[in-house]
Amino acid sequence: MYLLGYDIGSSSVKAALIEVETGKCVASHFAPDTEAPIKALKPGWAEQDPTSWWDYVKECTADIITKTRINTADIKAIGISYQMHGLVAIDSKLSPLRDAIIWCDSRGVPYGEKAFHDIGTEKCLSHLLNSPGNFTAAKLRWLKENEPQIFDRIHKVMLPGDYIAFRMTGEISTNTEGLSEYMLWDFSTDSVATFIMDYFGIPSSILPDIKPTFSDQGHLTRQAADELGLSHGIPVTYRAGDQPNNALSLNVFEPGEIASTAGTSGVVYGINNNTAYDPKSRVNNFAHVNHKASDPRIGVMTCINGTGILNSWIKRNIVDSGTTYEDMNIMASKAPVGAGGISVLPFGNGAERILCNRQIHSSFHGIGFNTNTRSHLLRAAQEGIVFSFMYGIEIMKEIGLDISKIHAGNANMFLSPIFRDTLASVSGATIELFDTDGAIGAARGAGIGAGIYRDHKEAFASLNRIKTIAPAADRIPYLEAYALWKDRLANELYTH
To answer: Is the pTM of this model over 0.70?
Structure first.
């Protein structure tokens, strides 16, 4: 038996096929070969054609079937992970009315900020656990105000994963986790946040049906099965946004467990067992995949926009052409902890939530022309990224998260020994690296949703841990470098 998982990203779509008994990934594929296009019709806008995601799903599926030559009737369930906070609007003929407004589009910001002010911070935070922010509901309000001729034709709205599930099954649904991404889930009443709906002027009729995250969410139609080259009737049994799904992929389900990623942006995502929130709304809170009102599981997330993008900027502008990231890590290792007094604030990729949505840009501090070298700069950049993670972790600790272990995939910045060692040593947490990804996680989630696995413990029994990184025996140099970094950040915030 097999399980099929899809990860619908903004850069690419990835599919993975895993064998139920062993948990082994037997084939995977991503599409397109180059980064998927994002349309930016105006500064701060970001859109994609949702039908292109379906085309990439078909390409990935075809490649996997060709590689494995399995009997597709042996695929017992499908799981879907997807880029969060996107907005797909379809008409009564079930066709998209416009391109999807995706997660990195910022046009909803002023609408979310105004709602936060008008409704009141206490009500928003106590009910939504967040400010309305730049999430899907605020983007939908932008659509109502700026493209009313389209808004008036909306039959249903969907998140990106909802749209792919709809293309597979013909059914239009979402889940509690998805509605919390919209900022449309009221945790105090365990229901749709009607006060936000009313404020933004969103009719309840356009919301999808609500189904459990792990459940039968429809079956492949004959048309979808023919397009995908799969067997008719395979159930879709799991769906979640990419960050909750990444946590699931790393077997992070219970309070105190932490998942982290460090690609272009970086995320620390921890599980809380209560609905505590940050009064300044510097971190995000979403219903985790196993959340229940009677037994809360809240995903507390800090996102740093300027993560791997800083490292790639260094690669393009500081080191010689042809230098690899591995070469950069070797060069950086020649500098001591603390990078000879240099601190880098990695905030050059837009406004940062942990800084109360302020945009202070990136800056380099403490460079000595007679003492520092390129190695110091390279190390300082990686340390600066880690310190921004730690700044977010401290906020998470303020609302009750106990962080002693961090789970991460063996990819991106976590391939760097300096990055890993610095994060473990400044946080005091042990880091465990695993061989997994979002598509594999979605496939395992499908196994839970279909009842093939009894629970997540059985589903992740075969998860392969690659490496464990413990904090340094002497953490003082790391903590001193972080304290200096925080002082310089405070000064920068004061001057902005």
So the answer is: yes
